[in-house]
Amino acid sequence: MENKEMTVQSGGNIEKVEKTRNGKHYFVPPVDILEYDDGLTLVADMPGAEKESISIGIENDILVIEGHGGVAASGENIHREFEPREYHRRFQLNEGIDREKASAEFHNGVLTLKLPKAEAAKPKQIKIETRH
User: Which residues of the chain have pLDDT under 70?
Assistant: First the structure.
């Protein structure tokens, strides 16, 4: 399946859209990734999404975030600035992430995903012993 990425400008904001071969559009949510000594925190903006619509999975070192945002309104559309959208984002993970301890929270359209480092990947200090 061939993926093409394009940038769409709407209302002064730039949104990335990933278009697949079957013509379906996915919005790529903007993400901040913060690194700490004990792991990574990923913060993704997914306005309009419901917690129940979000799917997060890790398979073969690929983190996949998907979700659905917005509700299609009935009635005649006179003006619309936000449309229902499908969110999709993928990341390559390294072996230093403890997948079993990953956790996620979703509040007010913001997904916060915590990816702790595996013990072997955490920085360690080596103490220098003194000989007597």
Answer: 1-22, 71-73, 121-123
List domains and CATH numbers for the chain. 3-121 (2.60.40.790)
Residue located via tokens 């996620």:
104
- C-alpha dihedral (51, 5, 43, 55), degrees to nearest 10: 30
pTM higher than the cut 0.70? yes
Q: Give Cα separations from 7 to 10, 12, 14, 16, 79 (angstroms).
A: 10, 12, 7, 5, 23
Q: Are 33 and 44 in contact (CB under 8 A)?
A: no
Name the burial class of residue 27, with classes exposed (0-12), middle (13-18) and buried (19+) by CB atoms within 10 angstroms of its CB. buried
Which residue matches tokens 């659905």?
A: 68
